[in-house]
Amino acid sequence: MRERLGGGLTPLQILLAILCLKVSYCSSILGDEHNALVSIERSAVTPDISPSAEPQPFLPSLAPSPLMPFTNATVPKLSGLCSLNFSAAQSIMSMTATDCWASFAPYLANVVCCPQFDATLVILMGQSSKNSGMLALNATHSNHCLSDVITILEAQGANGTLQSICSVSPANLTAASCPIIDVNEFESSVDTSRLLTACEKINPVKECCDQTCQNAILDVAQKLSLNGMSSSDGIPISAEHSNSVDDCKNIVLRWLASKLDPSSANSVLRGLSNCNTNKVCPLKFPNITTLSKECEGLINNQTDCCEAMESYVSHLQEQSFLTNLQALNCAVYLGMKLQQANVSKNLYNLCQINLKDFSLQALSQESGCLLPSQPSDATFDQMSGISFMCDLNDNIAAPWPSSTSIVPLPSCNKTSKIPALPKASSAHCGACIEKLLVMLLFATSLFLKMPP
């Protein structure tokens, strides 16, 4: 879809070029002059499958740069002023460091990295409350603890700017406006048995539609925010009280994390976050004026219109990896914006725009990476580096919106007209990257430090 390489590659393009190693259909993407520069070794390792066989998902892989080891040899220097029990969530923190690996964190942020980082903070707070009896830190303590958490993660290969990438501040570890943070007071104020029954184990698919655990959390958070006051006076809920409910939800999650083992708590928290992640389109859309002028009304020149459409979508592709449901939401949102700008023709059909065209691309439309709605964590291997599962094979046409289009959680509405979604990735990969050349990694590490 994109023919914008010009005289050189951007840092992001070089980074994503690594994903094409040893994948047969990537062999002609870069051109001879770039092949000579980075000496990419390519070979067809895609297994022989018949045309009727179901294509398998792809497992992209990135090895850490030799200039930046995945795990530092030195012990991270901590403040010594944080009482959080880091050892209780050691495995979860390692998972977070992998999900938020330095170079890829900004591009996996909204789907994998930040949800896992948030879950880690909740689990650390919950596990530590077993000894402290408190579900929140004061302002001073929270500063030291957040700094220590990021220092530990960075020492294991995570991006050092997670606070900025995930919009997290020390205030995220405090009580904020929730009036109850004492564990004993919490347990005497609400029906903890009902809460635990609803949330100790969730079905990540059914939960997003039925909201059993989410409703239980909301009910407890509302009771905590009232702190013994009656809500039956008929007084409208103020913005201040609404904020308090949101802050108390965090307290509820920390309490849940104290009652579950870290691995189980992580599964629940990630399942809940996926429900919110898949409701929205996280992309920032550029102004559509130029696009709408080329494509409005009867469309005078189809070629110019589709070139404008492809140019517009190429800007979207530089932002983030998306899940299939996020891509669906993005497609409907952009279609609605175009319809409001007097574009009546189905541009997705006209210009062959697929759902995966909204997600980050590996230099070519054929390498569009679309994550499943329940994205798996990234993994680290000494030989193959950082890997995560995505689907390059499902060329599902993007849906042009109609009056029946429903953006939030379309899979929960059985009557809504939506296209078949890409299947969830299986445990098998159609093409796995075994090894990356040091020469390419060296070049990548240098270019990533250069301004775009």
Order of helices and strands: HHEHHHHHHHHHHHHEHHEEEH
Taking pLDDT < 50 over at least 5 consecutive residues as the criterion, the unreliable ranges are 1-9, 17-56, 61-73, 230-236, 406-410, 414-420, 423-452
Spatial order of strands in the largest sheet: 1-5-4
Number of helices: 17
Mean pLDDT: 76
Specify Rg, calculated over alpha carbons.
24 Å
Instruction: Tally the structural domains.
Output: 2
Q: Give the DSSP E fraction (strand runs of 2 or more residues).
A: under 5%
- Structural class based on helices, strands and sheet pairing: mainly alpha
How many individual β-strands? 5
Query: How helical, in percent, are the residues?
Result: 40-55%
Main sheet: strands, sense, barrel:
3 strands, antiparallel
Distance between the termini: 21 Å
Shape: globular
Protein described:
The chain has two domains: 11-63 and 285-447, no CATH class; 86-277, no CATH class. It is built from 17 helices and five strands. The protein has helices at 11-17, 32-38, 90-99, 105-132, 139-155, 162-165, 183-189, 192-199, 206-210, 212-226, 239-259, 262-277, 289-295, 302-316, 324-340, 347-350, 438-447; strands at 61-62, 322-323, 370-371, 379-381, 385-387. The strands form two sheets. The chain has a three-stranded antiparallel sheet with strand order 1-5-4, covered by helices on one side. Strands 2-3 form a two-stranded parallel ribbon. It is globular.
